[in-house]
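Q: Mind making up any chain with structure tokens?
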Amino acid sequence: MNRHLKKVQNLKLRKNRVRSTISGTESRPRLTVTISNLHISAQLINDEKGITLATATTVGKKLEGTMTEKAAVIGKEIAKGGKKAKITKVVFDRNGRIYHGRIKALAEAARAEGLEF
């Protein structure tokens, strides 16, 4: 197995391990973060009903700066979307990634805008 496939497989294992314990409810939805090479997406999800309450993404936007700066912008946007949906507390789902860099920037920006995790 080549190195890249092994990294992807390990990420899937970590993601599944975390998702087995984390679940979003109506009072505390799950804030999930997806990061690709070019884009960052965040969603507030109620797993009990299977619906997305709010979403923010860089797809289709002309954002300037590094990916870390884009992550901070998405963190602010998802927090504002949560306020519109009257959500203040969330469960943070990192999707198997470590809390560092882009994930950390998004989380700190969301906290600064009023989300609690």
